[in-house]
Amino acid sequence: MQVEETGSAAVLERVPTHLRTTRVDRVFWSHFSPNLAPAAWVIGVLVVVLGLPGWTGFWVLLIGNLLGSLPVALCAVMGPETGLPQMEASRFSFGRIGKRLPSLINWANCVGWDAVNNVPSALAFILLLKMVGLAVPFWLALGILAFAQLLASMGGHDIVQAIEKYLGWVLLVSFAIVGVIAVFQSSGQTSAAPAAAPRFADIMIGIGAVSSFNMAWAAYASDYTRYVPPGTPSSRVFWLTFGGTFLSSFTMELFGLLTGAAISDPSPGSVIAALQNWSGIFAPVALAAVAFSSIAINAANDNTAAYALISGGVHVNRMLSAVVTASMGYLLAVLGEGTFVSLYENYLLLALYWIAPWCGIVLADWYCRPAALKSLRMETLAGWTSSATLFVVVTVLTIGLFSSTPLYTGPVAAMLGGADVGYLVGFFMAALGQIALLNARGRRVSVARFQDA
Question: Number of C-alpha atoms within 13 angstroms, CB side, residue 193?
Answer without folding.
Answer: 3
